[in-house]
From TrEMBL:
Family designation: Belongs to the radical SAM superfamily. KamA family.
Keyword Zinc found: no
Superkingdom of this protein's organism: Bacteria
Organism: Ameyamaea chiangmaiensis
Keyword terms, alphabetized: 4Fe-4S, Iron, Iron-sulfur, Isomerase, Metal-binding, Pyridoxal phosphate, S-adenosyl-L-methionine
The keyword Transmembrane is annotated on this UniProt entry: no
Segments forming domain Radical SAM core: 90-302
Cofactors that this protein relies on: pyridoxal 5'-phosphate; [4Fe-4S] cluster
Pfam families: LAM_C, Radical_SAM
PANTHER family in alphabetical order: L-LYSINE 2,3-AMINOMUTASE, LYSINE 2,3-AMINOMUTASE-RELATED
Name by which UniProt lists this protein: Lysine-2,3-aminomutase-like protein
Spans annotated as Disordered: 335-356
Length: 356
């Protein structure tokens, strides 16, 4: 039977009362709360079967978050060093991040911005927004604005409308992208007023962050359909996480759930080395093998690009898996069978072709 939660869970008392943590965990929960925010909205909390299942593991605090390894860093992708004005991160020549707020519907325990996000943090006031728009107007090479945070869909419809109209007024901004967890975390927020605010003559994309197939509830799919009904395409990004989606079966289930919801898998991220996230780490070699295990098993529509955001703000690069061998003279098929490649690019089969 699905449990119902009347409000977002934020404190040790609430987590224990909801049955998502034992009383013995109280001291550890309170220690983590002193460093990092907690929020588990009702729709997401209802999916948790036990605290360390693939849903609970993503959002229930753990004392391990207070342990930092030598490989971890406080700003793993260089946001702070690449921020010319508050709210703007300029990493690539033709696009920027715009962070209008640092509030999320839920706080992922593996987030690389965990030290900055929280219920009281990071809303750009009118003056800061105007300064960000002024910076954008002064940089005509910028053609794309990626709204992130925090979660942009936590903005009020009025605030979102103000931002959208300001971006529309900058001629060289042709593409607007919104990165969000809201449709799976708090689907009721995706209402007509918010969608009206997203109306634009620019190319608008929504990028959904989801990590497990169970996040695609009927309510989440309905919220996604409301977005899609406004002619806004939705693509998906996920983080490869130990204990969440690190098996062939769980990753396949996630990718199939995305496609079934008309969400094109876009990126599978290697975990960013934020402090206290070691328990989620999956080695790159294991990630490559995991993705290779799905080649030929799922439709190409479900195939994401496995990427690493190079620490220090140097950008994203694809990690493979690779199928070329011997400097392009041979190739592996999805079953791992080697085929030589002829001078004009055709493969000389190492075995007889299967009858179709």
């Amino acid at each position: 039977m699905t449990r119902l939660f009347p409000r977002t869970l934020r404190t040790a008392d609430e987590l224990i009362a909801a049955g998502l943590a034992p009383e013995a965990a109280r001291a550890g929960l309170e220690d983590v709360a002193a460093a990092y925010a907690t929020a588990i909205p009702p729709a997401f909390a209802a999916l948790i079967e036990h605290p360390d299942d693939p849903i609970g593991r993503q959002v229930i605090p753990d004392p391990a978050e207070l342990l930092t390894t030598a490989a971890e860093r406080s700003d793993p992708i260089g946001d702070e060093a690449l921020s010319p004005v508050p709210g703007i991160v300029h990493r690539y020549a033709d696009r920027v991040l715009l962070k209008p707020l640092l509030v999320c519907p839920l706080y992922c325990r593996f987030c690389f911005r965990r030290e900055h996000v929280g219920p009281d943090g990071g809303l750009l006031d009118d003056a800061a927004l105007d300064r960000a728009f002024e910076w954008l107007r002064a940089h005509p090479a910028i053609g794309e604005v990626v709204m992130t945070g925090g979660d942009p869909l936590m903005l009020s419809a009025r605030r979102m409308d103000r931002i959208m109209r300001a971006l529309e007024a900058i001629p060289h901004i042709q593409t607007i992208r919104i990165h969000t967890r809201v449709p799976v975390a708090d689907p009721a927020r995706v209402d007509a007023a918010l969608l009206d605010a997203l109306e634009t003559d620019r190319a608008m994309w929504v990028v959904l962050h989801a990590n497990h197939a169970r996040e695609f509830t009927p309510e989440a799919r309905a919220a996604l359909r409301r977005i899609q009904s406004r002619a806004i395409p939705v693509i998906g990004q996920s983080v490869l996480l130990r204990g969440v989606n690190d098996t062939t079966e769980t990753l396949e289930g996630l990718l199939r759930a995305m496609v079934a919801a008309r969400v094109k898998p876009y990126y599978l991220h290697q975990l960013d080395p934020a402090p206290g996230t070691a328990r989620f780490h999956v080695p790159i070699a294991e990630g490559r093998a995991l993705l290779a295990s799905l080649r030929g098993r799922v439709t190409g529509l479900a195939w994401p690009t496995y990427v690493l955001d190079i620490p220090g703000g140097h950008g994203k690069v694809p990690l493979g898996p690779e199928y070329l061998r011997d400097e392009g003279r041979a190739v592996l098929d999805p079953q791992g069978v080697r085929h030589e490649i002829g001078p004009t690019g055709e493969a000389n089969l190492a075995e007889k072709p299967r009858t179709r």
